[in-house]
Write a structure and sequence with these properties.
This protein has helices at 3-33, 43-50, 67-80; strands spanning 56-60, 84-88. The chain is mainly alpha-helical. It has two domains: 1-36; 40-89, no CATH class. The mean pLDDT is 85.
């Protein structure tokens, strides 16, 4: 095995270890949250949810390529329907 193969193996192994470590961390954090209440939301979204009325909430990110064509249509829908709320970022 040449030195390039060893370097490549170390880089790939490090990347795999990083990804696995991140997955383990996220799962451990999620497990610690099990059974706890979600934090309260502020603003109009929080007020609507706190009122006990039904709501369909669309979360999106302005940087999401899949969200860009859909978001304007759903924002228009949210203006016409009080039970539909669009919450970005």
């Amino acid at each position: 095995m040449g030195s390039r193969s060893v370097i490549l193996a170390v880089v790939v192994g490090s990347f795999v270890a990083l990804v696995v470590g991140m997955q383990v961390t996220v799962r451990a954090q999620a497990r610690r949250q099990t059974g706890k209440d979600a934090p309260r939301l502020g603003g109009p979204l929080g007020k609507h949810i706190a009122s006990g009325r039904r709501a369909l909430v669309y979360f999106y990110s302005p940087g999401c390529a899949a969200c860009r064509p859909v978001t304007p249509k759903l924002k228009e829908l949210s203006k016409r329907n009080e039970g539909f709320l669009a919450a970005g970022q």
